Amino acid sequence: MSGPSWANRVLEILGDSVRRVDSLPDELTLECDAAQLLAVATTLRDHAELGFDMLVDLAGVDYLEYGKSEWKTSLATGSGFSRGVNRGGAAAAANGGTAAGQRFAVVSHLLSVRRNRRLRLRAFCADNDEPMIDSLVGIWASANWFEREAFDLFGILFKGHPDLRRLLTDYGFIGHPFRKDFPLIGNVEVRYDPQKQRVVYESVSIEPRTLVPRVIRHDNRYDPALIEQAPSSAPGEVAG
User: Fold this and answer.
1) Alpha-carbon 95 to chain mean position
2) Residue 157: which of 180, 134, 182 has the closest Cα?
3) How far apart are CA 222 and CA 147, in angstroms?
4) Do 154 and 54 form a contact (C-beta atoms < 8 A)?
5) Staple 44 to which of 6, 52, 130, 220, CB 3.0 to 4.6 Å?
6) How do residues 174-217 score in pLDDT, each as one tens digit?
7) Are strands 188-193 and 157-159 parallel, antiparallel or unpaired?
């Protein structure tokens, strides 16, 4: 079955429980409501024509300020660079906040070994303040540590997870470092204290600042017209 025909067949099987998301021509990305996630995932795994028996990856996504960021990379900018800008005051009010249930999402990458097909499934958490979604561990056991990672880095809670603990950050870590509103300088810093003979945690000593554009000024010493000229004669010498 060709790619487009297979994609249409997947949509027929899943019906109104999913929506197709724009993606590359050779990829299939589907989106479902959080309440439908377990039912859709079970169908993707158990249906005879689908057979997605392997979850190869699962990741959290923070869509805060998605499509509104001052992301400028190649030219000088007076408003700053991405998260380095000051988002307070009128600028923040003009941009507006993220719509309810549209900030945190969980994206699962699935593989059907039998049919050699791949599929991406996305589901948004209903609550932006306390993101929570059903765990997929009961359907694909490999989701266990992936969900722990998403919880650690994004603060997404997975209902029904057997052991939802931090995975990558240190004990007592404050916050979730992959959230878009997490400060780039962090909340605490660590150092070894020779008097206490142990590692201590302290408040960050780096001063927060707003990045400013780099200004490149023209330097006539490097003008190509001057560089290509022959060196002038030394004082007292007569050009031959």
Assistant:
1) 20
2) 134
3) 55
4) no
5) 52
6) 899 999 999 888 888 888 999 999 988 888 888 766 666 566 66
7) unpaired
SS (H, E, C) 90-127: HHHHHHCCCCCCCCEEEEEEEEECCCCEEEEEEEECCC
Strands (E), the chain: 18-21, 29-32, 54-62, 104-112, 117-124, 132-134, 157-159, 188-193, 198-203
State percent of the chain over pLDDT 70: 73
Please state which of the ranges 35-49, 53-67, 78-92, 202-216 shows the lowest mean pLDDT: 78-92
Q: What is the pTM of this model?
A: 0.73
Q: What sign does the dihedral 180-183-187-188 (CA atoms) show?
A: positive
Closest alpha carbon to 119 in 43, 178, 179: 43
